[in-house]
């Protein structure tokens, strides 16, 4: 089954940065919007950021606005999530997901996304 692959997670101190990558080499990548979601222990999965198929539209959760930036390189079939000023509450497993979508993107409907990666752990120490 086609599955995107996340990487770039790890342990970082509060205030630090990480860049997550999501590679979807088996997909016609530029047909898909891409979302990042996260799930902390004991909490529901929440949307973090998304980017439209063209890269022209992005959406972010209020909790990460101004700190996280999404971008994509369609030639490399990769989406990036640059995470700056990380906080302990950002600790979670981060998943990327793809949805075939003509325009725009949303992070409020995870059920809309068709293909999910296995996740990468991000841990922010205080």
Features:
126 residues; mainly beta; seven-stranded mixed sheet; globular; 11 strands
Model description:
- The chain is mainly β.
- Helices cover 0% and strands 47% of the residues.
- Strands 2, 4, 5, 6, 9, 10 and 11 form a 7-stranded mixed sheet that branches. It has a 4-stranded antiparallel sheet with strand order 1-3-8-7, with no helix packed on it.
- The relative contact order is 0.33.
Secondary-structure map:
Elements: E1 5-7, E2 10-13, E3 18-23, E4 32-39, E5 46-51, E6 58-60, E7 68-73, E8 78-83, E9 92-100, E10 115-116, E11 120-125
Parallel strand pairs: 2-11
Antiparallel strand pairs: 1-3, 3-8, 4-5, 4-9, 5-6, 7-8, 9-10, 9-11
- The average pLDDT score comes to 96
H/E topology pattern: EEEEEEEEEEE
Shape: globular
Helix content: under 10%
Structural class: mainly beta
- Show unreliable segments: none
Share of β-strand residues: over 45%
- Total number of strands: 11
From the alpha carbons, calculate the radius of gyration and give it in angstroms: 13 Å
Largest sheet, strands/sense/barrel: 7 strands, mixed
End-to-end distance:
38 Å
How large is the count of helical segments?
Answer: 0
Characterize this entry briefly.
The protein is an all-beta fold. Helix content is 0%, strand content 47%. Strand 4 (32-39) and strand 5 form a beta hairpin.
């Amino acid at each position: 089954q086609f599955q995107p692959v996340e990487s770039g997670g790890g342990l970082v101190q509060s205030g630090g940065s990480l860049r997550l990558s999501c590679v979807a080499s088996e997909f016609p990548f530029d047909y898909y919007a891409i979302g990042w979601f996260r799930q902390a222990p004991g909490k529901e999965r929440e949307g973090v950021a998304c980017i439209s198929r063209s890269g022209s539209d992005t959406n972010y959760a209020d909790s990460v606005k101004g700190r996280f930036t999404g971008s994509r390189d369609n030639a490399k079939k990769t989406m990036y999530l640059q995470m700056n000023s990380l906080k302990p509450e950002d600790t979670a497993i981060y998943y990327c997901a793809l949805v075939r979508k003509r325009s725009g993107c949303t992070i409020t409907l995870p059920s809309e996304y068709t293909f999910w990666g296995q996740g990468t752990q991000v841990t922010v120490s205080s």
